[in-house]
Amino acid sequence: MDFKKIFFYTFDGSYGSYSRSTKPEKFKDLESIFSNNKKFIPRGSGLSYSALSFKDDSLSINSSYFNRFISINKTHHTVKVESGVKIIDLINFLDSYGYSFPIIPGHPSITIGACVATDVHGKNPFHDGTFCDWIIDLTLFHPNHGYLKLSKNNEIKDITFGGLGLSGFIVDVTLKFINKKVEYMNSSTTKSTCINNSLDYLNNCKSDYVYSWHMIDINNVNDKGLIFESNYIKKKKKNFMNINKKYFSFDSSIRRMLPFSLFNSITVKIFNNFFYHYNLFLKKNFVQDVHKSNFPFGYFSAFHFAFGKKGFYEGQYLLNNNQVDPFIIKLKKLIKKYKLNTLFIVLKKFNGKGKSLSMTGKGILVSINFLKSRNFDSFFYEYEKILIDFDAQPNLTKDSQISIHRAMNTIKNYIDYKNKLKKFDPTLTFSSEVSERLKL
Amino acid sequence: MNYLIVGGSSGLGKCIAYNFAEHGIKTTLLSSDKRDTERIIEDIYLRFNIKNNYIQFDFTNYSEDVIYRELKKLKKINGIIFTIGLVSDKDSFLVDGMDEDLAKTLFDVNVLSVIRLVNTALKFLDSSSHIIGIGSVAAIKGRSKNVYYSSAKSALKSYFESLRHFSDIKNRYNVQFYTLGYMDSGSTYNMNLPLPRGKNVKLSNLIRKNLNKKSKNYTYPLYWKPITIFLKLCPPILFKYIKV
């Protein structure tokens, strides 16, 4: 079959290429794809910030027709779903039975297959772990190996859980869920005077969701910010904010429709100060629908849209607790040197057990959002050296511009993963722009 | 209520099964793809608490006995919806001729299986039952592409006209026929089509809403109606330049 080429972009707008794509509707469609093509890569909703689901000579296999719920076991609290099911559909499905799932990434349209391939984390990865910790078993399809059942103790799972889809097409996944109906969250906002203040708070906090947000002030030692924490509650209270459950989900091509960026050195300050004061004074303590807590970007899509065609760079790194503050001091010096604009830094406690390319170990997740400017490439060259010095493990879903040098030095299981993948699939049937750049 | 959907494992047939289940209508899915259809049935049950039936049947190897036996197991059928359709990349005129086996397969699946199944199913239908056929704009005018497919769909349209005539005279059955333009499906994904595609979800809704109506022909998407008239009237000298 002749597959037409379409132009795919990364969600952050940093990279795009013409790529062939197909959308199998049935098992026999899926199996027949592999007879006439050489390189493949699975694709979910196309929301990754980096080019994980396409490459110019790879055929992207869209999983959206594989979106069926297969079974639910109320005794063992497990649910079996196909890889194209969106996380919002899983949440709503479990909710209808009075259950919930703890690992919820920021966007409602992310597919289960993508959650597995990138081993996403939720709102409290220190407490709940990452997505793959909740997998009981998984069915993988590889043209040379057929359908493989991967359980917790299978070696192939090490290259599939958080393996960026390079080991095959994930057909279905059996997940554990929690026997708790969650509808509302009691949320509060606290002022934070500096990064260290937030780190202390995060380390001692026992809330269900907790993270801190900071403005980067290059002229000041302290970066003021806010600490957001939320706890599940069963019943709504008087001050409940009733929200519309519908959300607007857009893909990477719609995100970059605005020809210019609304963010610049002035509007960044206005945005950050508005966000800071709005949350500190108007949203100090409130109850909201759990969907709004779970999917901030589903309900606030305008944020990413505002970056326009030029896009943005968002790095997310796992750092040791005691290295966060010195890292940010160094980063601020570099930002000052290159006169760069950053939107904010978000900190979260993390605990990952991944054995592939995902972040692993305990520490603090640091997310930083940069605006793209003329100096960005020069800045990034030096910035990567700092990241290597601090042994900052990257989140490959977001880090769209990571170099192979940094990948080899900061991804804990890089060599091990590469060897296992080569052993399983010597011809490297599945390949994306990222996997090719990182020589995986 | 129980409707038999012929070709229920993908595309429109699958979509109708979900749409009907959402509105409390039970269906029996007839298809050859066991793996997909079983999952669809389970998914529908988990989402809408409707347990549909499944008949595994391969139309390239038609057996009347099997169909009769399976239909007999179903207590009542309120109607049959034929969403089955088979196309082929090789279905184009070539200088050295076309594959005759392909003609047999495409006619078997697209028209003969429908005729055979109607013949068998009439024994199980009452006078208020619906027989719904799905045609294609490919049948409006023959082209050098989709040769056998459009011939088969043309034959199917004629068969449904006859069926409707019979039902009008005898005042039995409600015969509805939908002529479809470009549709959004796995097979048209990424295809460069000159006109927008119709949505299976909207068409499923239309089919469900029309279940309380008598015999009638429909065109979907509606904008294909004037195009259909234009194509019928279009002289061959002009038609050869039109890319449809």
Helix content, binned percent of chain A: 25-40%
* Assembly state of the chains shown: heterodimer
- Specify the structural class of chain A: alpha+beta
Task: Provide the gyration radius of chain B in Å.
Answer: 18 Å
Average pLDDT number of chain A: 89
Number of helices of chain B: 8
Total E-strand runs of chain B: 7
Strand content of chain A: 25-35%
Structural class computed from helices and strand pairing of chain B: alpha/beta
Distance separating the two termini of chain A: 28 Å
Uncertain parts of chain B? none
What fraction of the residues of chain B are assigned to beta strands by DSSP?
Answer: 15-25%
Q: Largest sheet of chain B, described in full?
A: 7 strands, parallel
How would you describe what is shown here?
The complex is a heterodimer of chains A (440) and B (244). By secondary structure, chain A is of the alpha+beta class. Chain A has helices at residues 27-33, 87-96, 112-118, 125-128, 157-160, 195-204, 252-255, 265-282, 290-294, 296-299, 302-305, 324-338, 376-389, 404-410, 414-424, 433-437; strands at residues 5-9, 16-22, 40-43, 59-62, 69-73, 78-82, 135-142, 146-151, 169-176, 184-192, 209-214, 225-233, 240-241, 285-289, 312-319, 342-353, 360-371, 393-394. In chain A, helix 12 packs antiparallel against helix 13 (376-389). Residues 237-244 of chain A have low confidence and may be disordered. Chain B is of the alpha/beta class. Chain B is built from eight helices and seven strands. Chain B has helices spanning 11-22, 34-48, 64-73, 100-121, 147-170, 200-209, 224-233, 236-239; strands spanning 2-6, 26-31, 53-56, 79-82, 130-136, 174-180, 216-220. The relative contact order of chain B is 0.13. The A-B interface holds A 1-4, 6, 20-29, 62, 65, 68-72, 82, 93 and B 9-11, 33, 35-36, 39-40, 42-43, 46-47, 89, 185-187, 189-192.
State the main characteristics:
heterodimer; A: 440 residues; alpha+beta; nine-stranded mixed β-sheet; five-stranded antiparallel β-sheet; 16 helices; 29% helix; globular; B: 244 residues; alpha/beta; 8 helices; 16% strand
